[in-house]
């Protein structure tokens, strides 16, 4: 069975909710799913995954969440060749127009450096996921699963 691992960081609960929708979408596609908060993982979290997903918000002026900083720095040394990845960002474009989902962009670039294959375009969600976003999450999950074949 295909193993999907989702790493997430959440401050307001928006990204946690998004990670839950991701988990449900992958389970509906009959994938095995492990979802962990950033505080509880280290750089080898994706080592046994077929699909690696990062769900993150952007902190301050375009910065990574504190919970993800060490993971982000350490994952650069990990070889994720043969793995498919996707990134989902949550943000507020009204308050942070210049930095909207910047941490998601940073993770996308970092995961490419690890040798992982981008399986879907980075999904950017305004605040909490609404019904349209949930449909986009389902499509995102389907694209990632298809990319593993």
From TrEMBL:
Its cofactor is FMN. Keywords: Electron transport, Flavoprotein, FMN, Transport. GO terms for molecular function: FMN binding; oxidoreductase activity, acting on NAD(P)H. The keyword Transport applies. Pfam families: Flavodoxin_1. The keyword Electron transport applies. Belongs to the flavodoxin family. Low-potential electron donor to a number of redox enzymes. This is Flavodoxin. It comes from Vagococcus zengguangii. The lineage of its organism: Bacteria, Bacillati, Bacillota, Bacilli, Lactobacillales.
């Amino acid at each position: 069975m295909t193993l999907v691992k989702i790493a997430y960081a959440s401050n307001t609960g928006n990204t946690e909710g998004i990670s839950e929708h991701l988990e449900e979408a992958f389970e509906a596609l009959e994938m095995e799913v492990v979802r962990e908060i950033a505080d509880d993982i280290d750089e080898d979290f994706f080592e046994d995954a077929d699909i690696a997903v990062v769900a993150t918000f952007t902190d301050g002026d375009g910065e990574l969440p504190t919970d993800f900083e060490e993971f982000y720095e350490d994952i650069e040394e990990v070889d994720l060749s043969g793995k498919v990845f996707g990134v989902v960002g949550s943000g507020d474009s009204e308050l942070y127009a210049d930095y909207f989902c910047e941490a998601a962009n940073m993770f996308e670039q970092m995961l490419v450096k690890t040798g992982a294959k981008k399986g879907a375009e980075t999904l950017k969600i305004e605040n909490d996921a609404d019904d349209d976003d949930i449909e986009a999450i389902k499509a995102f999950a389907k694209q990632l699963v298809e990319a593993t074949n």
